[in-house]
Amino acid sequence: MRKRRLRDLPPEALDGRRALVRVDFNEPLKDGRVADETRLKAALPTIEYLRDKGARVVLLSHLGRPKGPDPKLSLQLITRDLERLLGTPVEFIPDPHTGAAATRRLPRGGVALIENTRFWPGEEANDPTLAATFAALGDLYVNDAFGSAHRAHASTEAVAHLLKPAVAGFLMERELRYLGDALDQPRRPFLAVLGGAKISGKIDVIEALLPRVDQILIGGAMASTFFLAIGFGVGGSLVERDKEDLAKAILAKAGAKLILPRGAVVAPSLERAAERREVPSDRVPAGFAIFDIDETTRLDYRARIVGARTIFWNGPMGVFETPPFDAGTRSVADAMVEAGKRGAVTVVGGGDSAAAVAGLEDAFTHVSTGGGASLEFLEGKPLPGVAALEDA
């Protein structure tokens, strides 16, 4: 079901109006400053479009997982960075309950930022009273926070029923378009690359993708659980022993579509990386653990990726935060960039994968800002923050 978009609204519906925009400014902070501006920058097209049309822009976001007000997670900490990126002053509003008057005083094209939505009890409970408080801050609602769309919170779901029109911003529209098109009308071969630690977090994704894709390439620690299922020893590798039967069932159902690593980079521990070696998948020595895919697998996966026309990637191939065990993840990123140069549609599904391609975003067709949201969308689950928006 297509949703009404910001670009569908006539300019006169925006001029002088207060646009309440749910953005995703859940950025990592270091020493009280923004450590990664990816999400701030992703919100700029929507904010600048609204300013350009004379709207008064009121921004809502959460930051971290506070259990009530916490000065270390105040959105006031990102105000300076936001002002620099926008090139305009940003008025900080510390309390939404008393902020409506300040939003009305904003000049046309002015920007205000409301304090962390999770400071108020009721946000995560999708409380209608808090949603009404948020709704009083605007005259229309724009959801541009795809990364939070899989949660039914007061600022993402309940408010959209109270404030109309309720439309998708440019980032939300882009996310739905690329993730949706990749699923509905992929150019083939359509390949999924799935990594990460746990098979349990990806079961629904694997099952949803199997009928649609031509191949799924598996990496990360979840490969160990599949190895266990086919009778390989996995040494001291991270493995979900209670998911062995499930892995067997997936392998039986997937047949030749599911591609497992041919070999692994193993070491006694992350700290003993100097003792690492490459072994075939069925020869992991006792006392060693798998930390990455080996060179044979990297070359195999590269050939498959470069030959594909649509590629969706979620999850690292190894412990990419700890070099030299980042080689497999980097090789997937490089192969996807190469595939993109050859005309393939390349979509990176948020979370750790987005972190792994930081700085390379422009080389991909789309890098999702939502890890959990992109996976739930691929599983075919309705996203509450999207469902609540008006239909086109």
The CATH homologous superfamily of the largest domain is named Phosphoglycerate kinase, N-terminal domain
| Portion in helices | 25-40%
Helix/strand class: alpha/beta
Strand order of the largest sheet: 5-6-4-1-7-8
In DSSP terms, counting alpha (H) and pi (I) runs of 4 or more, how many helices?
14
User: What is the annotated CATH architecture of the largest domain?
Assistant: 3-Layer(aba) Sandwich
Number of strands: 17
Tell me about the largest β-sheet.
6 strands, parallel
Q: How would you state the average pLDDT, rounded? A: 94
Strand fraction equals 15-25%
Q: What is the approximate shape? A: elongated
How many structurally independent domains?
2
How would you briefly describe this protein structure?
The chain is α/β, with parallel strands linked by helices. The protein has helices at residues 38-52, 79-86, 100-105, 128-135, 154-162, 170-184, 203-209, 222-229, 244-254, 295-306, 327-341, 351-356, 371-378, 384-387; strands spanning 18-22, 29-30, 33-34, 56-60, 90-93, 111-114, 140-143, 166-168, 190-194, 215-218, 258-259, 263-267, 277-280, 289-293, 310-314, 345-348, 366-367. It folds into 2 domains: 6-173, Phosphoglycerate kinase, N-terminal domain (Rossmann fold), CATH 3.40.50; 186-378, 3-Layer(aba) Sandwich (Rossmann fold).
